[in-house]
Structure formats: C-alpha cells, structure tokens
Design a protein that fits this description.
8-stranded antiparallel β-sheet, 7-stranded mixed β-sheet, 7 helices
Amino acid sequence: MTSNPFRSSLYIVLVFISCSLYAVEFTFEAVADPYSLSWEEEPPKGTNFFASRLRTTTHFYALSPQKNQSVITLKSLRNGETQSITWNGKLFAWSFYGESVWLLESNTLTAVDPISFAIKQSLPFPISIKKWSDIVIEKDRLYLLSDAKVLALSLPNFQQIAEYEIPQGKAQRMLRGPNGNLYIISTFWGAILRELDPKTMEWKKSISAKTHHHDLMKATDIADGLLPIFDLENKKSFSLYLFGDQFLKVSNGLSLSKSKEMLRISPKKTKLSAVLNIKAKQNVSAQTIRILLPPKQTYSQEIIEESLLYPGKIEEDEDGNRVLFITMPALTKDQVWEKEIWTADLYRYQVRFKPSYSFPISEISFPSHLNEYIKDHPTYDLNHEQVLAKKIELFDNDFVIYLKNVYAYAVGMPYAKGKFDPAPLVIQKYKGGCTEHSYVQIALLRAAGIPARLVWNFLPWNGATEFELNHKFVEVWFPNYGWIPLEPLAPPRKNPGDTDARHLVWARLATPYHPLIHGGDRLVSPESAKAQKQMQTNVRFRLVEAENEEGEPISNFRNGVKEDSEDRRVE
C-alpha cells in the first residue's frame, strides 16, 4: 500500500520532558490520530455491519448495498468533504491496491479509479460469491476470506495457491497488515485479531484490542501502526495503536518514548494539596520538618504546576526524589499547628513497555552512581541460600528472559497480609504483601547484578480524597532506557514495565528506609529522632481527580485493593 501522506504532517507531535542530570531523559512523542474525522451527515442507509470499510491514501469509503446496485460514500481524509457514487451491480468485496479500487461482484473483479470510479480493468472471477467476503490484493495474489478459510489465489489467473484453516471457527473480517501479513477478526473471539503470515503459511500471535469487538467490524487496513475505525452509525472515527501485543486507543495523552519502547496511555489529571498537622506532646522549640513530595517527572507521572504555600525549601537528589524542608514555630504542650503547605497539578499515566533488544546479563553495564542499587542489605540478604537457589532456578543469561522470569514468579505469589519479612523468608513461605513481593524481586535482581530499587507510593482507589503511603513496588534498571516498573499486583500483570495502576510515587530507594525520614513508612518527620518523640507529625495529602482535555470527567479506573477469600490483588 502507498505510504500514508499524513504521517509527516500529523502523525507525530513532539513533547519534550527533561529529568535530572543523572537520570535518563524521558522524551515522549504524542501519537496523533490522522483518521479522526468529523461526522455531521447521516450514515448511508442500509450500511452492512459486516461489509468492510475501505481506506485509500486520501479517502474513506462506506458501502450501502441496494437490490441491484451499490451506493458508495467517499469521505476525504484531508478536508472531510463527502461525495456519493452509485455502482450498477451488487458488490461482495473490495480492496485498494496499486492506485486502484478493486470491486468484486459475483463473478467479476473490476479495477476502478479511486475517485471517479471509471473502469480500468475487468477480470472474470472463477469463484461464485453470494455474500460479503473480504479480499486483500497484493502484487501477485488475492486473498479471499471465506467463512472458516482464507484462500490464496494467483493473479491474474486466480489459480488457488494455498488454503488456510481459521482456528476456532469462522471469521467475518480480514485486514491488510504490515509486512504483507493478514489480520483476521471474528465476533466469536471478542476483541482479538489473529495474525496470518501467508508466506510461511503460519498463524502468528493473537493481538488484543482495547475496544469493543463490534468496533473491529468497522476497521480498515493497518498502516503506520494505526488501525483506523470508522463508526458511521455513531458518527465517530478513531484509531487504535499497535504496541507489543495490544491495540490501544489513540487519545489525548497517548505518547511514545523517544526510544519507542515505552508507551503512556489513559492520563488522569490530578490535583494534590498537602496539609501539615503537628501536635506537641510537650513544649518543643522551633523545628525543621521534612516532607516527601512526588518527583517532578517519571515515565508515569508529570507535575505540570506546583506552588509552595508556606515558606520552605525543596531539595532534589540525583534520582529525582524530593524533600520539602520547612520550619515550624515553637509549640507548648498539646498545642496544634496546622498549615496547608503545598499544592500541585499533575498527570498520571498507565504505561506499557516493549523492549526492542536484549543482551547477556554478564555484559550488563550501568552508570556508576547506580552502584547503590546492587548493594546487599539485611532485608534482601543476597547471599542467603534461599535467594541463591531461587535465582539459579529462574536464571537465564538473557537479560529480558530473566527479568520476565523474576516478574512472573512475583505475579504468581499469593497475597497475604505482610509483616515486612526479609526476602529469604518470603521465598520460603511463598506469600506476602506488596512489601514482600518487592523485597523478593529486588533480591533476585540484585543477586544477578541488576540494579533494582524500592518505590514508596500511594495507589488511589475510587473516591479516595486523603491518603498516606499504602503500597510499594519495584523499579528495575533497563540499560539504554532507564527505570521501568515491576508491579505484580496491578493489571495487566503480563510483562515487566506494564501497569495500569497510575501510582502516586513519593520516593525511589536503595534500601527499605528513607535516609531523611524517621520512623519507617512515613511521608513526614522532624529533623531529629529526639524531636520525633516530642510531637505527633502528620501530613495529609488531598487528591481531586480533574477533567480531561475535552472537559469530560475522567473515568475512574478502580485501583483499590480488593479482598478475596483466597487472594488479594490491586485492581
């Protein structure tokens, strides 16, 4: 198929995001949708649900079969103008190839001009067609979808070359995909596309689509990673973007990393504010208070605006962790001091990761400042026999394979209320909470010389308005890209680097403890441990989900913690 003329002008919008000096620069390219059209006119009457849409480099085509003729509606992809053409004959299939639209009647295949529909060539077709049957035309072949089979016919004599049985019953749609492959769709499979390589006569992977399977009946050929869908009945069109083993809906916020390996999807705009509350247990002097603030930018979190509402100073380390230092006044016993100290607007994203390469673990390299993320700690106990035995069991010198093995092991670990047990004990018991899941992954990765760190975060649920820390997960260093998440308790739980959780991240740590916060899993503490005993310190972060860029309420994807009789998972 001819290359898409919109790619150069509309397909990519650059959005630059910079991180700290030592971190990988997160640069994302927003994926635009050149096939998003405005539909003001009524859809053509009699449009067949299963009759495929057609798309050329310049137009979209819809077919409305009549008794002895076919009405074809053309809509320009450039200016949205529409026109109607009547074809004297009933059409059963069509395809675009070689600057021609090919129309299949019962016993005739005709090539026409894609705008005027003037006839260029007609060929007798040996197979009698009685109902709609998708075709795809390539250089010397015609592929015909016929219920539970795909037939490959030679051109121009239409001799049968091959026959492909469709797995799991019949299908209704067939699309042209990249590299000459075909994509088969069936309402019986749900929102799934099955890939067929006609050169090797092999069925390849199945790809899921984040949309209703009825939408796939209204799709056109895949180009530049986009699957355009033209829904005439509902007067809308949109595209799905192919990333890894999923087609994801293109929308505001869908952006691709500069490396082409990470995708951000489904943004939520969130408003945060922090209220500091201190109650003196005894008379205390003025104190410096430390409060953790979210990092400005990560692969899944981006602060777009923030304000200090009380005098203070924010310090940021080389990994983007931030601490706010403020001075509280002297207090008398039982006195309460409360102030709103900080507010911010940020976007949180779901993410997908698709590594394009791998390498031997024995050849792994990383910046020297990451050495602290391969060090041992009593919680991880890298040389313990339980850790070493499990590492040997899961080990593969291929970096990506070992990463997947470790992640799959954590995903399979049953959830149980944790006690912050060290990694060897968790491996022995093979159960634990989010903290234990994290400790085990860090231990198994560091034992193989791979940098890994603990992430303190909050995992929002529907209706959450105030919160403290409630969750932990792991980030692993992927050379030549940067840190990616390993989240075994939030969907989709399939691949390292994928998560729907939209965490609110507060700190990424080499050990289980923050060096500036006293008292364990906390977001706030005085400067000294002594002062910690003299007062009760609490910071309440308030959360409000904002609207999306279209002014509509952002959908509440449930990220809460679900209790089941046998298991607990973050949804």
